[in-house]
Amino acid sequence: MGALSCEHVLNIQDLSNADIMLVLDTARSFKEVNERTIKKLPTLRGRTVVNLFLEPSTRTRTSFEIAAKRLSADGINMSPSTSATVKGESLVDTAQTLDAMDCDLVIIRHRYAGSPYVLTQNMRAHIINGGDGKHQHPTQALLDLFTIREKFGRFEGLEVGIVGDIAHSRVCGSLAPALTALGARVTVVAPPTLLPACPEALGADVSFELDPVLEKLDVVYMLRIQQERIEQSPLPTLREYARLYGIGTDRLARLKEEAIIMHPGPVNRGVELSSEAVDTARNLLLYQVNAGVAVRMALMYLLLGGDKDGLAA
Ligand code: CP
Fold first, then answer.
1. What is the pLDDT of residue 9?
2. Is ligand 1 within 6 A of the CB of residue 59?
3. Across the chain, which distance is largest between two alpha carbons, in Å?
């Protein structure tokens, strides 16, 4: 087992292609561990992992918590309601306070882009970005890459459409550059009002319509409409959005035979995916969630230098 070339994972670009492959290969070993009856390894015994989630999360927070427990780390959970941020404590002061307690790894989710970087400047611990504003969500990209590689066995030549709220999507901000770096061809699909000012910076082709590109796609990655981050109304109605960009019965029937649907969750049923599309076997959302535990175990293990004996136990 090798080592990562970075100390922190703030952006997907912190990881080289070789780092990404190392994480995915390590995650495969942990996925096997997660399929056992006894899912616990002693690998990170005595290490302290803090989940500093200052914005809501179901999947990311829970899977990091499960990952820490399965590796025998001591895991601490902090949320807005249980941290002194509600009393006005700054992020710098929170970081310095946690640093004084000798934490080994902090996973942060925060509404402001760049918050994970602030921690790196004020703590000695390794930092993982669990989602910062509209910026990046690198561990989501890693679990998505794991899912795509398990399904197709490769990235080169795959056609991936990322559909929806590109402008507000930290998931797209990490996934699109990673896929292009690994040889996939990415098309972002959205109305102009849901695209960033320079979509080319994602390294992707751009389409304002879904129908002209749908039938070439191997992966149809549907993004959630993030009503909490949309300052002005960029859509006439959600019903109109679903008609133009959602996957329902008709578009399901037009997908390539081997095509998969992915979604980071949580889903707005009836908006980006109909209930039929959520429930189809093509939709790998729950496989992604399952892979998320293994991928986060791998990342913790590689950053904290877990011992090989622990992995084999
Ligand atoms: N995919 C994702 O980040 O989900 P949560 O917001 O539930 O963590």
1. 98
2. yes
3. 57
Judge if the beta carbon of residue 169 lies within 6 A of ligand 1.
no
* pLDDT digit string, tens, across residues 256-278: 999 999 999 999 999 999 999 99
Same domain flag for 258 and 203: yes
Q: Is the CB of 131 under 6 A from ligand 1?
A: yes
**Residue 60 belongs to some domain of the structure:** yes
**CB count in 10 Å sphere of residue 60:** 25
Task: State the pLDDT confidence band at 156, using cuts at 50, 70 and 90.
Answer: very high
Tell me the per-residue pLDDT of 22-70, one tens digit each, with 9 for 90 and over. Answer: 999 999 999 999 999 999 999 999 999 999 999 999 999 999 999 999 9
Is residue 272 assigned to a domain? yes
**271 with 142, same domain?**
yes
Do 41 and 180 sit in the same domain of this protein?
no
The verdict on 21 and 55 lying in the same domain is: yes
CA 313 – ligand 1 centroid, Å: 30
Query: What is the 3 state secondary structure string of 152-190?
Result: HCCCCCCEEEEECCHHHCHHHHHHHHHHHHCCCEEEEEC
CATH number for the domain including 73? 3.40.50.1370
Q: How many domains does the chain have?
A: 2
User: How far apart are the CA of 197 and the centre of ligand 1, in A?
Assistant: 25
The model's pTM is: 0.94
Collect all residues with Cβ–Cβ distance below 8 Å to 137 and sequence separation of at least 6: 60, 129, 130, 131, 170, 171, 173, 174, 264
pLDDT in tens, 104-136: 999 999 999 999 999 999 999 999 999 999 999
Its domain, for residue 69, covers 12-136+289-311
